[in-house]
Specification:
Elements: E1 6-11, H1 18-25, E2 30-34, H2 41-44, H3 47-66, H4 81-105, E3 109-112, E4 115-119, E5 122-125, E6 128-137, E7 141-143, H5 157-160, E8 169-173, H6 177-188, E9 192-196, H7 208-220, E10 224-226, E11 231-236, E12 242-246, E13 249-254, E14 256-259, E15 263-265, H8 272-275, E16 298-300, H9 311-326
Parallel strand pairs: 1-2, 1-6, 2-3, 6-16, 8-9, 8-14, 9-10
Antiparallel strand pairs: 4-5, 5-6, 7-15, 11-12, 12-13
The chain binds flavin-adenine dinucleotide (FAD).
Length: 341
């Protein structure tokens, strides 16, 4: 093969401003590949839609408290789910447009397709081959659902952000921050919320006082915690309602069962192993301190490397990559001050 036509093929979008700008300043050509829309999980299926739902859910508590401060209403405020979803989707559409423009203005060629690595410098995008000096992988992760009978009845966080109607009664399996945030959202939007966790306490790895305080406050708001319970099966009744069977018994009558049981790196069918990129047991791409993989020309940042799976961290890693590869300034991501939820 001759000299690669491009300097960088970038699979996935971790939109650190210095990535497109860094490349533009030195007149590099960057190609981004995306599955569905030119926006990353944070904006379409993570932080942003979640926060919009959090804002909506908070009003119900404010309405309740306002009475003590002298407010009265002739009728109780009503929530319209379809308005919330329509406005949330319009905002995500707006942001998608902004990100597309940022890429365009930086001279990035955006190819919407699924990328598969063919050799250390070549990516196949839906049947067309592109070659570059470097390949950057930031394809993120996807929700992981335990393999139990009836798991097809369950929803994950992607679906929970886009439900056609408000859940009447929802079981949320998982005790991490994503599970608890959704529990708070649905509780605020007046669903009956049950949280099932394997351990005694929520938020493993967080400050001990915070773990206790959060669970206590959420219980006071009416969220029911089922501790030391592992899901074993989801059963569907003739009336369409769902039951969650755990090691301690069965709870019936759910309209929805949601799994927030972790995420796995998106490395299946990317051609990584075939070209010699080493993976961890859970499928994460192994990288050195500069985000370089075991293949010299292939780099990886963000959730796909399973280092610290947060947006600002993915952005920082992307920025460090840009400085290292295009700025002649070898830079290691610095995790010391990464803020966590
Ligand atoms: C519900 C939820 C809430 C969250 N809330 C927060 C929060 O409040 N704060 C926070 O910091 N973090 C939060 N996160 C985590 C945050 O979203 C991730 O850490 C961040 O998005 C990681 O960015 P990334 O670029 O590594 O991967 P992603 O954002 O997952 O982006 C990967 C991109 O690559 C694309 N892609 C995948 N495969 C291919 C392929 N073969 N070819 C081309 N493109 C491909 C995907 O479609 C996607 O667009 C949340 C996550 C979830 C799920």
């Amino acid at each position: 093969m001759g000299k690669p036509a491009l300097n960088l093929i970038w699979m996935g979008i971790t939109l650190h401003k210095s990535l497109p700008r860094g490349c533009m300043n030195v007149n590099y050509c960057v190609t981004c590949l995306r599955w569905h829309k030119p926006c990353w999980c944070c904006v379409l299926r993570g932080c942003v839609p979640k926060k919009l739902l959090v804002y909506s859910s908070k009003y119900s508590h404010e309405f309740e408290e306002s009475r003590g401060f002298g407010w009265t209403y002739e009728a109780d405020p009503k929530h319209d789910w379809s308005t919330l979803m329509a406005n949330k989707n319009a905002e995500l559409q707006r942001l998608t447009g902004i990100y597309k423009n940022i890429l365009k203005n930086a001279g990035v060629t955006l190819i919407e397709g699924r990328g598969k690595i063919i050799d250390p410098h070549t990516v196949d995008i839906d049947g067309k081959l592109y070659s570059a000096r470097h390949i950057l992988i930031s394809v993120g992760g996807r929700p992981f659902l335990p393999d139990i009978p009836g798991k097809d009845y369950a929803i994950d966080s992607d679906a929970a952000l886009d439900l056609p109607s408000r859940p009447e009664k929802i079981a949320i399996v998982g005790g991490g921050y994503i599970a608890l945030e959704f529990a708070g959202i649905f509780n605020g939007l007046t669903s009956d919320v049950h949280v099932f966790i394997r351990q005694k306490k929520v938020l493993r790895g967080f400050d001990e006082e915070i773990r206790d305080f959060v669970a206590e406050q959420m219980s006071l708001r009416g969220i029911e915690f089922h501790t030391e319970q592992s899901p074993q099966a989801i059963l569907k009744s003739a009336d369409g309602s769902l039951s969650l069977k755990t090691n301690k018994g069965t709870v019936d009558g759910f309209s929805h069962v949601m799994f927030a049981t972790g995420r796995r790196p998106n490395t299946k069918n990317l051609g990584l192993v075939e070209v010699g990129v080493k993976l961890a047991k859970n499928g994460a791409i192994l990288v050195d301190e500069y985000s370089r993989t075991s293949v010299d020309s292939i780099w990886a940042v963000g959730d796909v490397t399973d280092r610290m799976n947060l947006t600002p961290v993915a952005l920082m890693e992307g920025g460090a990559f840009a400085k290292t590869v295009f700025g002649s300034e070898p830079t290691k991501p610095d995790y010391r001050f990464a803020s966590i939820a």
